[in-house]
Design brief:
Its cofactor is Fe cation. The protein is 2% helix and 52% strand. With 241 residues, it is mainly β.
Length: 241
């Protein structure tokens, strides 16, 4: 079966704006509900957030969700009810497993500069797991060398951090103009242009904030037109399977 590709443009995303936050949602989120856009594969949330200096998300609850945070610019301070504390910065991957329930806060660690990050949620394999937390720095050279696996629950995967979903993996690449990577071959692949502009084989150009949703992905080649950063979800199942 030939791969199918659907481009979702940045301008078509729902936006939540407050005095301290601008959050752009690739899928239904909060008050923004579209019954035709609730998830893709096992990916439920892909929020592109900018938080002003000294502000952030006060303590709030999550349950039965795998939450991966990737900072593009600035620094984000995390604290949770399980005693985990840390500052996330570009190149440091973080995964929080909400499990049976966890309270956490996410605040801009700077009083002078905004923080820009992408937060992604996938469903875990099982409900009722113990809450957990993991973070690990990713080598910049590896990110520039090709798709690097940030988080994965797939058997035999070589990931920086673990994900409690056996059918999903998150990859990242930082590309210079002319650099190219091959996308994974998988039933569902979600490509998010976190920064810059790239050309996708047989699809066309996608720019910052755009996404491409591949069904039966066949390893298409992606080439940077300008400096770019890609976040790529490889998924071998969808919700309901």
């Amino acid at each position: 079966m030939a791969a199918l590709a659907e481009i979702r443009r940045a301008a078509g995303r729902a936006v939540t704006t407050t005095p301290w936050l601008q959050s752009r949602h690739s899928f239904s989120f909060g008050d923004h509900y579209d019954p035709d856009n609730t998830h893709y594969g096992v990916l439920l949330v892909n929020n592109d957030d900018v938080v002003r200096p000294g502000a952030g998300f006060a303590t709030h609850a999550h349950r039965d969700m795998e939450i991966v945070t990737w900072v593009l610019r600035g620094a984000l301070r995390h604290e949770d009810s399980a005693g985990h504390r840390g500052v996330i910065y570009p190149g440091l991957a973080q995964r929080m497993s909400a499990g049976t329930g966890i309270l956490h806060s996410e605040m801009n660690d700077s009083g002078t500069e905004p923080v820009h990050f992408v937060q992604m949620w996938v469903v875990p394999d099982a409900t009722g797991m113990a809450p957990g937390y993991q973070q690990r720095e990713i080598d910049d050279g590896a990110l520039h060398a090709g798709l690097t696996t940030i988080a994965s629950g797939m058997p035999g995967g070589d990931a920086a951090i673990a994900l409690h979903n056996r059918d999903a993996a998150l990859h990242c690449a930082r590309l210079r103009p002319g650099d190219a990577v091959n996308l994974p071959s998988a039933p569902y692949v979600h490509v998010f242009a976190a920064r810059g502009r790239v050309g996708v084989e047989a699809v066309g150009e996608v720019s910052e904030g755009d996404a491409v949703r591949f069904t039966d992905a066949d390893g298409r080649r992606v080439t940077a037109v300008e400096p770019a950063e890609l976040l790529v979800w490889e998924m071998h199942a969808k919700l309901g399977d």
